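User: 6,7-dimethyl-8-ribityllumazine synthase. Structure?
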Amino acid sequence: MAIGGLGQLDQEYDGSNLRIGILHARWNKEIIDALVEGAIKKLLSLNVKRENIIIETVPGSFELPYGSKLFVEKQKRLGKPLDAVIPIGVLIKGSTMHFEYICDSTTHQLMKLNFELGIPVIFGVLTCLTLEQAEARAGLIEGKMHNHGEDWGAAAVEMATKFN
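Assistant: Predicted structure:
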């Protein structure tokens, strides 16, 4: 089981001039809260100003793609465009095919948003087979894994600054 993060960075990235949006689902609250906290912690450590971290919610992971689109467009209309958005959700397999359908459609639509919106859309959706896997990836099980939200915060800053 991989327990690393983003791997070796090619340089340090400075997010001091960035506005980063976090849009999170409300299902699986304890796990979501930990992931959001991890993303914020990493963004702050990369010099993103707290007032430039904008947080919104949607009901569930299926709503993340459309919610992300509306979120980015709203910030642009307000004259405060985002440099990247991190949609955060958690999907845990149940006893029906529902999990596979939601994972597949959400993943594809979030990927497409990168090109449609012209900003990085970081894939912050855990797709886990068990609750324990999700808790581990949110850093809630001591010594098991790290908080993936931190990886997503780092990826947002890197992708928003690297090619500009």
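The first strand starts at residue 20 and ends at 25. The radius of gyration is 15 Å.
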